[in-house]
Amino acid sequence: MRGDQLPRGTPGGATPSQTAGPFVSIGTAWAAGRDLAQEGDPGSIVLTGTVLDGAGAPVTDAMLEFWQADRNGRFPATPATTWTGFARVLTDEKGRYRLTTCRPGPVSSTNPDLVEAPHIDISIFARGLLQRLITRAYFDDEPSNKEDPVLGSLAPDLRPRLLARCSSGSLPVAANALPMYHFDIHLQGDQETVFFAPW
Amino acid sequence: MNSLDPAMTTNGVGVAPDPPYDYAPYRSTHLRAPKMPLQRLPAGAADRYGPVFGPFPIGPTDNDLTAGQPGAPLGERIIVAGRLLDQAGKPVRQQLVEIWQANAAGRYWHQMDRHPAPLDPNFTGAGRCLTDDDGRYRFVTVKPGAYPWQNHAKAFRPAHIHFSVFGTSFVERLVTQMYFPGDPLLEIDPIFQSVRDRAAAERLVSKLDLSTTMDNWALGYTFDIIVGGRAATPPDP
Q1: N or C: which end of chain B has fewer CB within 10 A?
Q2: Can B110 be counted among the known catalytic residues?
């Protein structure tokens, strides 16, 4: 008879967050490391960087989750679609992450006046974080950043902290190499990343 | 400046139940909790309402942490079951629930866990399942042990199981921990105590449940999870 007499839920009282702890990989690695695009796909990019703590030390035990629109700026309409817009990556022993994905298009919303510049949402879970952190990676070579309402809502000195920087122009790379965008996440410090409330 | 203090923010329902990022008794927050206030996203941003987890394959025994090894794990076999609900009390259907935990001796199957307690070759401590159409999930596992950690002198974590759940939208993503009723370590655990609202903290404690218990086999505990406390209704565009 198990399950049949479980108490009903109590609306109005949400379950609080707790830290994912240092061993988050045990339960989550099975679904980590799946890219959202293949290297050969046209328009693919790499988003990569390092997660750093307030002492500048790499955060080697973090789980990052990415959520983004497709090339046309649309989020998947149902969970059953093949392309989910969702990816999970565990940081490595140097605190690094790497995701091969497509560059999203500009995102429309329920508000027709609100069109957001292309960006990728990132949630960070780790030991020492009692709730997840949420940030966004924008693209430093994207002209529509100037009209983006989120970037525009920030103090000017904070806006560059949300820009992923394209390195293809400054490094010797093979002709067929993917555009690579660098986005480090600083949990603290004078370059602390801009984090968002989830609601 | 479009910023807010998470501890002071209400959503029309009440003060958000989540712990603050900056909570000094939990030492790992010192270099990891952000110091700047959180920023607010614009009302109507599309990102917040979509589903976030795709159709990953879940095996039929992935919710049984005592299965899949040559022998049975040591320790007290238990059943942990409950419902995944949204803020309105509606079931969250066909969504992913993941758990991970220490073994009965309080040791994780992880190379960075140096606690000198025995590993159990029959227990890796990871499980997952999808909720059914009534939002129910169910795991078979062993009761995890308490274990020491480096937070302060004689610090021991209360027995707990880590839970990771997806709601139906980005705002409902939740990672938390489930505790066991009557555990005296809860009163001195900085992570449990970081939830300053006592009623909210109590929602992290499972309940012994005879209807989930299976006769001559395993005690049952219920743990309902309610997501989306900070987003009772989507804001008007």
Answers
A1: N
A2: no
Q: What letter represents residue B158's amino acid?
A: P
A11 in reach of chain B (CB within 8 A): yes
- Other residues' Cβ atoms within 10 Å of the Cβ of residue A77: 9
Question: Cβ–Cβ of A14/B39 closer than 8 Å?
Answer: no
**Is B162 annotated as catalytic?**
yes
Between CA A126 and CA A193 the distance in angstroms is 16
Mean pLDDT in residue range B131-148: 97
Residue type, A172: P
Question: What domains, with CATH codes, occur in chain A?
Answer: 24-186 (2.60.130.10)
Contact map slice: A 30-49 vs B, CB within 8 A = 30-31
- Nearest to residue A120, comparing CAs of A100, A104, A143, A142? A104
Entry field: residues in chain A: 199
> What φ, ψ does residue B47 adopt, rounded to 5°?
-55, -30
Topology classification of domain B61-226: Protocatechuate 3,4-Dioxygenase, subunit A (2.60.130)
Is residue B93 among the annotated active site residues?
no
Q: What is the mean pLDDT of residues B179-184?
A: 98
Does the CB of A19 have a partner CB in chain B at under 8 Å? Answer: yes
* Average confidence (pLDDT) over B204-209: 98
- Asked if the model's pLDDT at residue A80 lies above 80, the reply is no
Q: For chain B, what is the radius of gyration of the CA atoms? A: 19
The interface residues of chain A toward chain B in range 48-87, judged by CB-CB distance below 8 A, are 53-55, 57, 59, 61, 65, 67, 69, 75-82, 84-86
Q: What token pair was written down for A108?
A: 């429309």
pTM of the model: 0.91
Query: Could you give the C-alpha distances from B176 to A153, B83, B218, in angstroms and in order?
Result: 31, 15, 24
**Mean model confidence pLDDT for chain B:** 88
Contact: B23, A130; criterion CB under 8 Å: yes
With 80 as the cut, is the pLDDT of residue A34 above it? yes
- φ/ψ (deg, to 5) at B87: -65, -25
State pLDDT tens for residues B213-231.
Answer: 999 999 999 999 999 855 4
